[in-house]
Amino acid sequence: MKSAVITFPGSNCDRDMAVALRQVSGRDPLRVWHGDADLPDGLDFIALPGGFSYGDYLRSGAMAANSPIMRSVAAAAARGVPVLGVCNGFQVLTEAGLLPGALMRNARQTFICRTVELRVENAESRFTRAYEPGETIRIPVAHHDGNYYADQTVLDRLEGEGRVAFRYLDNANGSQRDIAGILNEAGNVLGMMPHPERAVEEAHGGTDGRRLFEGALRELVG
């Protein structure tokens, strides 16, 4: 199993993501810098971590979305390679056009950092198949721009195609339809604001995030 974590200037959860992938897969992921033009050959999984790429000085994720490496990430996603974007990684995926919609400033204009409850809306994707449909899980969030927005046509399509992966039970950031995570049409790209890599061992206060990685990597690690 060969995975990679992409690091942008301002990423601060890349090590957390790497540790989570190592714990589940038994292998250290490759660390890839945003300025690289090409991804390593033969990747089975790509993760875009949380943080504040380029300091969020424009729109969150907008500058990172134009990094050289994102062209290779988009090409890998088109080939079917699983891509996970968490928090800032979710913002990058929307800005790069790999997922629809945008992440706006939280409704109350404050940074939110706490554990939240999510409902698993789609338990059939490779990222969510280790959960039960409708299950409530607890995952930490830490963001200032996590308010998911899309027009009503896009929201209806996401709902109708089963592409809402997770929904907030207590929507503190104002996301439309309580959306916490969405999938692309092919189901191999997931963007989510909550941090599953911060919930992979008991010392974190819970392990509900671990099953996301276990499901996503199931065939890859035997």
Automatic annotation (TrEMBL):
It comes from the Bacteria. Pathway: Purine metabolism; IMP biosynthesis via de novo pathway; 5-amino-1-(5-phospho-D-ribosyl)imidazole from N(2)-formyl-N(1)-(5-phospho-D-ribosyl)glycinamide: step 1/2. The active site is at 87 (nucleophile), 195, 197. One of its GO terms (molecular function) is ATP binding. One of its GO terms (biological process) is 'de novo' IMP biosynthetic process. One of its GO terms (cellular component) is cytoplasm. Keywords: ATP-binding, Cytoplasm, Glutamine amidotransferase, Hydrolase, Ligase, Nucleotide-binding, Purine biosynthesis. Its EC number is 6.3.5.3, 3.5.1.2. Pfam families: GATase_5. It is found in: Cytoplasm. Its main location: cytoplasm. It catalyses: N(2)-formyl-N(1)-(5-phospho-beta-D-ribosyl)glycinamide + L-glutamine + ATP + H2O = 2-formamido-N(1)-(5-O-phospho-beta-D-ribosyl)acetamidine + L-glutamate + ADP + phosphate + H(+); L-glutamine + H2O = L-glutamate + NH4(+). NCBIfam families: FGAM_synth_I, PRK03619.1. Part of the FGAM synthase complex composed of 1 PurL, 1 PurQ and 2 PurS subunits. Part of the phosphoribosylformylglycinamidine synthase complex involved in the purines biosynthetic pathway. Catalyzes the ATP-dependent conversion of formylglycinamide ribonucleotide (FGAR) and glutamine to yield formylglycinamidine ribonucleotide (FGAM) and glutamate. The FGAM synthase complex is composed of three subunits. PurQ produces an ammonia molecule by converting glutamine to glutamate. PurL transfers the ammonia molecule to FGAR to form FGAM in an ATP-dependent manner. This is Phosphoribosylformylglycinamidine synthase subunit PurQ. It comes from Aurantiacibacter spongiae. The gene is purQ.
